[in-house]
Amino acid sequence: MKTILITGAAGWLGGMLRDQLNGWVETLRLSDIGDLGQTRPGEELVPCELGDYDGVMRLVDGVDGIVHLGGQSIEGEFETIVNANLRGCYHIFEAARKHGKPRILFASSNHAIGFHERETRLDGDALHRPDSLYGVSKAFGENLARYYYDKFGVESVSVRIGSCFEKPKDRRMLATWLSPSDFVAMVKAVFEAPRTGATVLYGASANREQWWDNGHAAFLGWKPNDSSEQFRAEVEGATPVPDPEDPAVRYQGGSFAAAGHFEDREPGS
Ligand code: NAI
Ligand code: 15L
Fold it and tell me: CA–CA distance from 90 to each of 75, 97, 106, 133 (Å)?
């Protein structure tokens, strides 16, 4: 592959992939509405608002693969989510269909299934149970991925990312943590696989607590190497023992499941 497009390249995961994937393909085409900084060797910078149909069509023209990270990455106002995550995701899949059908890694989220309880082990057939408007938008993106493969043959992997940060920030993330290095290996596996169809993949490292089963996606050959266990003492030492009846503990989506409906918030909050 010559050119991979990364949307959301000014964000946390996009910036990390920008550093880690440089040299893996000939060109990284990097896009965002945020500041992308200076162009480095092996890069093209193409600022683009995901809600702009024509802009996204131009953005995708000529790429061999897409890592679609761009969008609202936490709960937020419905209109913001509609523009960035619903319209934006539709534009990406539609542009792929019109420009040679590059494979897409779609950054979905555990919040598409966040209202499943922690005791439930989920596989690729788990029902969507979004815990937020944000989670609903990720379920929409996964369904777009399914539709564009079934109808047009656009291949994709929708990754239900757990919590991909340098290290787990709380007790829940001891289960949901995905190390940056495991995520980089996953991205490479997704684009190196001979076929992907439209696959849902859970994004968690080899942590002690396992909520998700990737058996259905074993053909991708991705296996996590890291574990949150190295951070357990530090995390548990810094946070109180949680109440097991707290919805943030009961449900996989944690605080997203426990929070009120975003559109009911007090003005200004
Ligand atoms: P982030 O918020 O740091 O990055 C998102 C980027 O998207 C930002 O740079 C933002 O400017 C850009 N963006 C937002 N609206 C846009 C629009 N309308 N047009 C163009 N660009 C727009 O988020 P992060 O953590 O890097 O996550 C990347 C993706 O992975 C997101 O889609 C997020 O939902 C998903 N994800 C991340 C997880 C994590 O643990 N970091 C967990 C689950 C999912
Ligand atoms: C997500 O979907 C968010 O993008 C990220 O910021 C974290 O909140 C993560 O889920 C999580 O559940 O820890």
Answer: 19, 11, 11, 17
User: For the chain, which residues make up each domain, given as ranges?
Assistant: 3-264
How do residues 85-115 score in pLDDT, each as one tens digit? 999 999 999 999 999 999 999 999 999 999 9
- Which of 68, 81, 106, 111 should be mutated for ligand 2, with most atoms under 8 A from CB? 111
Q: Does ligand 2 have an atom closer than 6 angstroms to the CB of 109?
A: yes
Can you give the pLDDT at residue 94?
Answer: 98
Domain 3-264: CATH class, spelled out: alpha beta
Catalytic residues: 134
pTM above 0.70? yes
Do 116 and 130 contact (CB within 8 A), yes or no? no
Decide whether any atom of ligand 1 lies within 6 Å of the 67 Cβ: no
